[in-house]
Amino acid sequence: MLPKVFPVTCHTDYVGHGSVFVAINGMNQDGIAYIQTALQKGAKKIVIQQETAISEQLLALITQAGATIEKVEDARKALGVLSAQAAGYPARKLKILGITGTKGKTTTGHMLYNLLLSSGYKVAALGTVENKIGEAITLPAPLTTPQPDYLHQFFKVCVEQSIEYVVMEVAAQALTFRRIETLAFDGLIFTNLEREHGELYPTMEEYFQAKYQLFKYAKPDAPILINGDDHYGQRILATNSDNQQYKSYGKKDNNTYQGDFYEQELVIDQDHFTYKNFPGEFNSYNLLACLALCYALRIDKESLKKGTIHLPRLRGRLEEYRLPNGARAFIDYAHTPASFKGLFETVRPWTNHLIVVFGAGGGKDHTKRPLMGQYAAEFADLVILTADNPRNEKVESIIDDIKVGIASEFKDKVIVQVDRQKAIEKAYECSIKTSIILILGKGPDEYQIIGNEKILFQERVILKNL
Prior knowledge:
The chain is α/β, with parallel strands linked by helices. The protein folds into three domains: 8-73, MurE/MurF, N-terminal domain (Udp-n-acetylmuramoylalanyl-d-glutamate--2,6- Diaminopimelate Ligase, Chain: A, domain 1, 3-Layer(aba) Sandwich), CATH 3.40.1390.10; 84-309, Mur-like, catalytic domain (UDP-N-acetylmuramoyl-L-alanine:D-glutamate ligase, 3-Layer(aba) Sandwich); 319-464, Mur ligase, C-terminal domain (Protein-Tyrosine Phosphatase, Chain A). The protein has 15 helices and 23 strands. The strands form five sheets. The protein has an eight-stranded mixed β-sheet, with helices on both faces. A six-stranded mixed β-sheet has the order 16-17-21-18-19-20, sandwiched between helices. Strand 14 (264-268) and strand 15 (271-275) form a beta hairpin. Helix 4 packs across helix 9 (281-296), helix 11 runs parallel beside helix 12 (369-379) and helix 12 (369-379) packs across helix 13 (395-403). It starts with 7 loop residues before the first strand and ends with a helix.
């Protein structure tokens, strides 16, 4: 397990006697406001941004606590450098594989972790659902890509546990906020890019440039696998056409997919890979990315074939529940227009009665909401609009944004039920034996964020109690 006290940290929960506290000005909170708490918990050094003003009163508290203060040009960069240094640069003793993109990071990471594991390697994983060190240690995931203080303590434990590979999701925010400073990757995957995180990146170009920063962290000999069927993937490949590190994967490269809900097959040239639990063409791209990277890393091909057969399910991704009336419900994390479309195209042929339950996160990208409504109404027989982490927005306002994209001819198939539990219960009430109910947006999450409060909310428990 990770230590309770970090030698360097930006969060007071990890401060103890002798810690260095780095005060970062975040999107919602300013670290300066937590310096006094850090001092009370034993911090002996405070690191702040060069231009940050500190009151005389706070300076006096720092002096009284026997702590020192250091000003730096970039507090976020300093957090990464100091955290790595304090941990003894453990990342240098590991092979780190990074995955970025809008869709598929978590599923690709899950697949890659398990393929390496079944090929005989000791593997750790950092992702959206959970963090794992080998097969014995499982930790909650604070962020898709954690802060550097957490990362380097995680890597330190990995070294202590003789881990060889670390599979790591890398979010755009992690690049923008310099969470991976000092890291060098042994392999990278770019899955795709679509509109997301508009609250932080107003334009697609800004979002793309944020993602693109990842490639500068690749080691000189690291393979970089790019989805050549994605528009932005093609752009990356064209820009780096003279660089042998960049390799394309995709269906245009003589690869084929076939399958149903129960069993799938991916054919790469003449090699057949059979797998289960990951239906749909969108999932075949995730597996294709993993196999392409494993090929580049010279992982044994026969081990990979055996590994695909035994790929375990991923919690919150088309997670199936059989209901008392014979209908099937699936919990899925899909929360963007493209993920909606890909999922609907996969599931629609399985049923003559599709019910979709979803909302959209408050304080997040508003532009995707109408498109989500459009696709849901076009594919489903019944759409139930509800809450999904409204935060400080009114649920009704979020739902109004979604309804903008729903054509008038589909209005009669839409129900609004703000209470998410009641929305799920309503979906069951409206279902028949052949129905499929898709409950979208939360996936493995077991909470609702209402205002600033995180409230326990377990969709799997609701379904089991129907």
